[in-house]
Design a protein that fits this description.
mainly alpha, DnaJ_domain, 6 helices, J domain-containing protein, J_dom_sf
Length: 127
């Protein structure tokens, strides 16, 4: 009878061990999924960088399709879609501010920062 109980104990230990392994596997899958989502977000940011972030004139040219001061103008200047969330727009704004700020890049083009700040203010007010 004692041996029967020991088999049950070893079975329970094995079951618990397998459950722990399964839990670790699920946690690893979750981490990998989060990592993949982060990589996708970084790729979106990278796409924005290559499109227009470095080129003020291109951003200005694209936005001139709309009247200056409108939300459509601001979103086009920021190279964003109407359904882009506020946090992503903020990232775009901060990246461009670092690139275009006269104190950061020794450039005398204050117009770029004026337009960028104007676009950001419009987006903030209308969201």
């Amino acid at each position: 009878m004692c041996s029967h109980f020991s088999d049950d104990d070893s079975f329970d230990e094995r079951r618990i061990e397998l459950e722990k392994k399964k839990q670790k596997k699920l946690e690893k899958q979750l981490r990998l999924k989060q990592k993949a989502e982060l990589i996708q977000e970084l790729q979106k940011i990278r796409e924005h960088n290559t499109n227009c972030h470095h080129n003020f004139n291109l951003c200005l040219e694209n936005s001139n399709k709309y009247p200056r001061g409108t939300l459509k103008w601001a979103l086009e200047f920021l190279s964003a879609q109407a359904d882009t969330d506020q946090e992503f727009l903020r990232k775009i704004y901060l990246e461009r501010a670092q690139l275009w700020h006269p104190d950061k890049n020794n450039d005398k083009n204050h117009l770029a920062m004026q337009y960028l700040n104007e676009a950001w203010q419009i987006v903030k007010k209308n969201r």
